[in-house]
Write the C-alpha cells for this entry.
Amino acid sequence: MVAAAAATSILSLYGSPAFAASHAGGAAKDSPGVLSGNSLQVPVDVPVNACGDSVDVVAALNPAFGNSCAGGTDVHKHGQHGQHGQHGQHRQTKQMKEQDMTTDTTSGSQAPRLLCFGAHPDDCEFKSAGLTALWTRAGGQARFVALTDGSAGHHELAGEPLVRRRRAEAAAGAKAVGADSVILDNTDGMLLPTLENRLRVIREIRVFQPDVIACPRVNDYHPDHRYTGLIVQDACYLLKVPNIAPLVPVPDRDPVVLFMSDRFTRPDPLRPDLVVGIDAVLEDKVAATGAHESQVLEWLPWIGGYAREMPADDAGKRAHAAGRIRAAARDEASRFRAALLDRYGAEGGAAVGHAEAYEVSEYGAPLTTEAAAALFPF
C-alpha cells in the first residue's frame, strides 16, 4: 500500500442560490472507500493523479482516470492552477481495501448543478455558455467535460503543444461563465462509443451529481459529436445500476438531459423544448467562446473557408469572431421565436435578441412545468 497525504478542504462557491428548488445533496454513504482522515491509501498498481491541491484515485472514486490536468488540475476551479500533469494511463484496478468514509467530491454544496458534455474543448462554450452563465449567476454550479483532447483541431499546430494550448483555452472559457473544465484524454477525431468511455462518463455524472445534463444529439456531421451524444445516452440508464462502476455511488435521482441545438434535419430537426433568452449574459458567452483563440481566430476560419474575411490585426480578428458568436445567438432567437413567445409571453418573447435552444431527451428525467420553473428561473 502507498499512503499519500491529501489536503482536504471544502470550497463554498455560492451563497443562497436564486433557484426555486435544489436537489443536489448526495454522499457516498456506506460505500467502499480509500480515504481516512487526511490520508489516502491505494494499492500500488492504482494510478494516482496529483494536480494542484487535489489527489485523485484514478478510475476509482474520481472519474479523472485518463483525464488531462488541463492548466494544472483535472478540474479547473475558477482558474486555480498548479503543475501541468500527464495523460492518465489505462489500467485495471484491483479490489480496493474498505475504509470508513463518507465523501462528496463536489464539496457538499446544495446548489443545483449543470453538467455539459462536448466532444471537443470548445463545444460546450459554443452551444451552452449562455445557459451556463445564467445558471451560475442564479447560484448554481456548472462543469464542462470534453471527451477528446482537441489535438486535431488546427491546420498548423499538432500534438502536445496544441493539446496544452487548448487545455488553457478551456480553463479560461469555462471560467468566463463560472464553470469548471474537465478534458478526457481521448484523441480528437478518434472517439468511439466504447465500454471504457461509457464507464468514464458514468463516473463523471455520478461524481458531479448534476440536476441537468447537456450534450449533443446523435445526428451530427462530426463523428466525435455523434459519439459523445451516444455515450451520454448509453450512460443515462446505467447511472442507477449499482453494479456498474460500483465504487462510485449511484445518484438518488435521474437528471434532466438536454440536447444542444443543431441544424440537422435527418432523421428529425431539433425540437425546441427549452429556449432561453441570453441577452443578459451575451457578452459572457462571447468571452467564453472567444477564449478559444486557436479555434475562433485560426482553425475555424481556415476549415470554414472564411479566413480571407478575417482582419489582419489581432484586435480586428477578435472583433470579427465576437460578431460571429453574437450573430449565431441572434439567429437562434429568430429561428425559435415561437418558443420564446410561449416561454416569455408576447412582449417578453418578442424582445429577446439572442437565445440558446435545447431538446429534452427521453433518456433522462421529464422536464415538467414545475421542474422547468425550479431549474431555469431565468
